Amino acid sequence: MEETEKKIATQEGRFFSKMKVFLMSLTCAYLAKSLSGVYMNSMLTQIERQFGIPTSVVGFITGSFEIGNLLLIVFVSYFGRKLHRPIIIGVGCVVMGLGCFLMASPHFLMGRYKYETTISPTSNLSSNSFLCIENRTQTLKPTQDPTECVKEIKSLMWIYVLIGNTMRGIGETPIMPLGISYIEDFAKSENSPLYIGILEMGKIVGPIIGLLLGSFFARVYVDIGSVNTDDLTITPTDTRWVGAWWIGFLVCAGVNILTSIPFFFFPKTLPKKELQDNVDVTKYEKVEKHRERAKKENLGITKDFLPFMKSLCCNPIYMLFSLTSVLQINGFASTFTFLPKYLEQQYGKSTSEAVFLIGVYSLPPVCLGYLISGFIMKKFKITVKKAAYIAFGLSLSEYFIFLCNYLLTCDNFPVAGLTTSYKGVQHPLYGEKNVLADCNTRCSCLTDTWDPVCGDNGLAYMSACLAGCEKSVGSGTNMVFQNCSCIGSSGNSSAVLGLCKKGPECDNKLQYFLIKSVFSSFIFSLAAIPGYMVLLRSVKSEEKSIGVGLHAFFIRLLAGIPAPVYFGALIDRTCLHWGTLKCGQPGACRMYDINRFRHIYLGLPAAVRGSSFLPAVFILILMRKFHFPGDIHSPDTELAEMKLTEKESECTDVCRSPKFENDGELKTKL
């Protein structure tokens, strides 16, 4: 008897060590994949400017990750359970690393970045073609070398980023469904919420690191080391600035490949904790049962795929939860994807500052909320029904906090001829641009070039020429323009490079916005774990892997892929001024109408997320009629339920309600 107890204790020690190591490795994989994904989102603005593409194309690049994930998610979730799950996860991490490396490759294949400007790096007092000069013999024109023009249009180097992001989606496919199903199969049931909470923490620590990397590299010029940064006439706050986005992808590639190594050394299966508690089951019997089960799984590798799919589609709680998730993710994905752009346009922050603020104010509360939520679920052994009510109440509270963003708004940048008149009076937008005035008609200026300067009167102008400036002093970003007739009639009026900063009131509103983000992020994370447990407990144990995969399939097909594209296309419609490529074709947007931008950015997600509470209410109603594991404690009742299950019709067998789902747990209790 003592020897048996020692063997059991040894097995339990091995179990805990292996499971803890797997949990740590899977957490690192979560960290690596979320690091890559969030870094990608933080660099979207840089990629948009680097390749001169509209926001809708950027949204398509973002959605390419979901396309790659969508190609394999259901089959990997199902067939992966039959195969060696840890090895498949390791291969996925390697593929993600290769995809990140491919995303960085355009930097090495294309030439240096040339931003739109009329000022030459060698500009001095003798070279002043960008200033206001009367009786100019020829109007300034952008470079239109036919060879460069064709090269600019046909390069399409952003396709490398798209393909690499697709590979990253393919590689990430097995990590979540197979990792969670591995833990659910071989971990103690009561520990699952805590383990999932730890995994979710890894998904938050990764984004924190990714946002910090994004903030750092956004301040570094894209061609660092190959150009003299002292000659630049733009700063990180300029909408033409492009940071060193490619360096971070190389870092992500290395991290993903390193995290793949431990998974190649894990066994295919681990002993189930509940079975170890039964001292009457011998080691020989366990091995025999495991072999018989493996044979049955191999024989039924394709036979039960369609029945599982049919069973899930007939599960009302599962389908309603999937619908709720699709609507919620439509709002969250579009909001988070373009959050740096929103902070940049709404509050006048650079991309680097915006990414840093997101990382500091939004993600730590989410990390804390995941841990607290998982601990509470384990400590108080909250049932599935209570978890559903908790998730609904917290989500609704966070939704109302989100609506408060409408109170924290700023006005457009004051740009003469674009958002205001040359006298500083706002005029209706989306009318005909009136960038010429009596003060600059004599200057023969370009009317489409975006090279903004800020006058000492608080107004910005699209170029020094349009501001009527006749003289320049200094070089690079320290250049000062003088004798600007549009700024003031006196001869001492001047302007500096860049747009004028927004007032202190806008900075105060940004602080309120960030404080609100702390509370909303924390409440959102508290609701995530209870909601996810509703998903896991609403399906049978043998369907959990494919259930998680099919749920992810719905989210990617109906939210992850289309949301960034249609959201980006709507944002493009609010653009006030497009950049100009070498051959005169429109490039990336330089300035948006912030009022219309705000209505789309806040209004559309609010409407979509608001509609998601309707199916959530039906879930709460349906859950009253079902019994879940943990709600019933009487063995007689459970046995009666099992007998009823045997007598159900064929359709009912396929669409079995959640109270008959976890056969393994019922057998253990009996």
From TrEMBL:
Signal peptide feature range: none
Kazal-like domain sequence ranges: 433-488
Keywords for the protein's UniProt record, in alphabetical order: Cell membrane, Disulfide bond, Glycoprotein, Ion transport, Membrane, Transmembrane, Transmembrane helix, Transport
Alphabetical list of InterPro entries matching this protein: Kazal_dom (IPR002350), Kazal_dom_sf (IPR036058), MFS_dom (IPR020846), MFS_trans_sf (IPR036259), OATP (IPR004156)
Alphabetized GO MF terms: transmembrane transporter activity
Keyword Ribosomal protein recorded: no
Cellular compartments annotated: Cell membrane
UniProt similarity note: Belongs to the organo anion transporter (TC 2.A.60) family.
Protein name: Solute carrier organic anion transporter family member
Gene name for this UniProt entry: Slco1a1
